Amino acid sequence: MNARTPRPAEAPAKTGRELAARVVFRVLAEDAWASPSLDGELSRARLPPSESGRATDLVYGVLRVLPALDEAIDQHRPRRDPLEPFTRACMLTASYELLHTPEKPWAILDETVGLIRRERAEALSRFANAVLRKIAAQRPTEPARPKQIVLPRWLDALLVKDLGADRARAFTGERPMPPPTSLRARGDRDALIEAIHEARPEAELTRGAMSAHAILARGVGDPRKLPGFERGQMTMMDEASQLVAEAVGARAGERVLDACAGRGGKTIAILDAMRASGEDDGELIACDDHPEKLLRMDDELSRLGHRPADVVRRGVDLSVGLGGLEERSFDRVLVDAPCTGLGTVHRRPEILLRVIEEDIARLRELQLAIARNVTKLVRPGGVLVYAVCSPTRAEGIGVVSPLARETGFTILREPVGNLACDDDGMIRLGPWCDPHASCDGFQIARLRRPD
């Protein structure tokens, strides 16, 4: 954003529609992430649940079908010069409502045009009114929320090439949107489902089919306000991420490394597995090249009944060296490598605004550099788990195959839970292996160092 692109008014938004336009503006003009931006605006605005729900639906709806909305707007404006950013955000939000929701067109137009007039200029509000009236005239008889995301053409073609037509169709095709909130139960999953049902009788709760700990939830509101959350009976964690942590197979008494831990969601799941026997021995180390992220684990560790000291944290850039970590000293190592994140676009559609095709090759080199260094840390007979939240071959087997060839590690062709690996040894997660069609696109490989 530059000096000519001022933010909208700083006062809290008064409606869900206004709040959504502000968040869309921040995502498009400031490269902000939707989730924290939306959470921040909702906390400030304190809107009724219906308006908060409207804002959330609009933000993610706009981002999931952004190219189609831009095209609808461009069809009805004579020039192709860039739209003023806040005006564009308002028009995108209104276009989504007009084309995909049952809201009254006059209400959408009245508030949107008034918002642009107040925040920008009379001329821009008249322009928006003219374009949006033309879009309203093309409104479907029965507007429906989109059931599939709109991807760039290059990504569509790449997914067909890398996944095959059937899996690519499953990933990009119709599925329930928005995806459900995924919870990881820490204890009796059925008892937790029952407790949530009692508190939220209108909620839809489904047992995850891939992880024995997963609960897929719709209509529960803020998960942090669910029964059992404060007592540490659950965490918020995508089911595919749960499978990655389970693939590590960590046990009490082992020395385990989470090499790219970030904020520690998988780290804590690994710690839970190590403590499942009730023993307190073993060692878990979490590394990241942004050490400030690692500090954010403290509150979550405490909420879940762990001590912050239960996870040793080290700021290390494993793409360039070992940062003093002892070679051949870990029983198990997880490399949840930095990646394009393209497997999570249904939950974080703004990724499609950031990733270009050239990023895949660049990140593959980074992934390979990290994995090569990390192999030095695995003890003889130990296991390295490599994972990415991307479905592309370059970021998956394109890293694992040369790594195994160079180091002599063996790719373990063993299932994780009830999920078998493909012929090349990769376990590819996605809606094709999930009866609920909600799973993100992940890849997992397990490699063993020779004795």
User: What do we call the CATH topology of the largest domain?
Assistant: Rossmann fold
Q: What is the CATH superfamily classification of the largest domain? A: Vaccinia Virus protein VP39
Largest sheet: 8 strands, mixed
Number of helices: 17
Q: Distance between the terminal alpha carbons, to the nearest Å? A: 55 Å
The CATH class designation of the largest domain is Alpha Beta
User: How many strands?
Assistant: 12
Overall description:
The chain is an alpha/beta fold and 451 residues long. It contains 17 helices and twelve strands. The protein has helices at residues 16-30, 34-45, 49-64, 66-74, 85-100, 105-119, 122-137, 153-163, 165-172, 189-199, 239-248, 265-275, 291-294, 297-303, 351-354, 357-375, 397-407, and strands spanning 181-185, 204-207, 214-218, 234-236, 255-258, 283-288, 312-315, 330-336, 378-388, 410-411, 427-429, 442-448. The strands form two sheets. Strands 5, 6, 7, 8, 9, 10, 11 and 12 form an eight-stranded mixed sheet that branches. It has a four-stranded antiparallel sheet with strand order 2-3-1-4, covered by helices on one side. α3 (49-64) crosses α5, α8 packs across α9 (165-172) and α16 (357-375) runs parallel beside α17 (397-407). The longest helix is centred in the C-terminal third of the chain and has 19 residues, at 357-375. The model has no long low-confidence stretch (mean pLDDT 93).
Short overview:
The protein has helices at residues 16-30, 34-45, 49-64, 66-74, 85-100, 105-119, 122-137, 153-163, 165-172, 189-199, 239-248, 265-275, 291-294, 297-303, 351-354, 357-375, 397-407; strands at residues 181-185, 204-207, 214-218, 234-236, 255-258, 283-288, 312-315, 330-336, 378-388, 410-411, 427-429, 442-448. It has 451 residues and is α/β, with parallel strands linked by helices. Strand 5 (255-258), helix 12 and strand 6 (283-288) form a beta-alpha-beta unit.
